[in-house]
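cron nightly-structures :: item 1 of 1
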Amino acid sequence: MTEKKTKTQKSAASGDKETRNYHVSTRADGKWQVKFAGGEKAIKLFDTQAEAIAYAKKLAQNQEGSISIHKKDGKMRKQKY
């Protein structure tokens, strides 16, 4: 019986690190959120976009990832920050 490897296991086996992408966007209630790309739940909520960006930068630096910033209307402001 062969075992299927997950994406993370494959990356670890090949020595490649999977980069994490964090998104900064607004919610219907007006709060700014930081989420994983494709994630359903917010990691953390903020009152301002600047606070959310600062937090996402710290996460991205620690995880060797990147951030994508959305405008209030949901369109991309800056990608791979």
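cron nightly-structures :: done
The longest helix spans residues 49-63.
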